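Chapter summary example.
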Amino acid sequence: MASLPTHGYHFTLVVENKKKLFKASTDVILNFPPNIVQEILESLPLRDAARTSILSRDWRHKWLSLPQITLDLIFSEAFRKRENAALDFPRVYSDAINKILLRHRGPIHKFVFDVPCHLPKASDIGCWIEFVCVNGVKEFYLNDHRLPKLKPPSCLFSCVSLTHLTLYCGSLSVPPTFRGFPCLISLKLDTCEDDNEKLESLIKNSPQLENLELVLGEAINSLTIRGSKLQHLVLECVLNILNLEETGRLKTLALDIETGDTESMDMVALLSSLPNIEKLRCLSSFHGCGLEPPKSLAKDLQQLHSVTVCMSLSCQYTVSFILCLFKSSPLLSRLKIEALICRDCEGKLLEFDDSCSLKPLKHIELVYFSGLRSELQVVKFLLAHSPTLESMTIELEVLAIRGLKSKFDLAKEVTRFRRASPNAEVVLKA
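The structure predicted for these 430 residues follows.
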């Protein structure tokens, strides 16, 4: 019997310690600085952020005042997995978003919305977008996973507070009253819009625009991009004529353009208007057959240090274009070429300017290499005129070079080429 009080005493001590530990933990949670609380909530999926309301009375409504609302695919999938929700998913999902928006307190600075495939009511989406626009949204992301894709409501183009706009959508409903986005810094569009005037108006009337990405699902004949503060441009489309105006600050340019008119895409003229370009990525299959090979650019590219191009190594025009880049770019140290086969130029010998020195060139990568005589000519020239070269990687086209003997013979021929750099390493990848 004497031991019973002892057990009771120890039990009471454990309970008291647990209470103190719980109270201490609660105090820590309650005393988090507001900025820490916001970081914690913003790092959680929306449903988990809502669950923090059970932590304490003070936390009950904190998630409702978050300045960002993320309704991504993780959010929608969570509803689909709920019992009975899959049977009436559009209604359950719409009701949930309506409650979230109606209970929200304060401004909404960031809104991310992935429209799930099984949400048919466009009217609800329009109301939600209008709500966040009224609440001063700055960063807006919309990705419609349905077909046909949504045409964004016109109210979005009246939201002058926008700084970042990303749309994966159908055509654009830019109203006649559109006056521009005075604060917009970043614009990313993946759209089936084929009206170049709408696109040009959108870009021209965003005077602070620095980052622009356009992926156009419909072919257009010409496009003029004007942006005095534009620094990064990505363009993927079917296009014949591209004009860049007032883009002297552009630092990176990535083009993936299909065109049936080889004379329209004048890369020499295009680059001459970009004096501050640092990185060039041109996956457009321009080849310039029949055109006069360029001898120089109109202006030097003093900042250009990295070039990736998709071109034929059998075409005198494209090879001369690359040499022009080196003549005009004293910092050009990286070159990647994705080789194409041009049947019109196949078998022709190329002419090189032996006085051309590729002094800054340190890294070369050749992809889809077929072992054509003209391609070997280019490799030989690059090795012989690059005194500071450190590495050349040649990735062979599997369908063009078959069999171990063919690969061995090619490797043997390449290793015989004279190298201006004693440190140059040549790697062939089959």
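To summarize the output: The longest strand covers residues 232-245.
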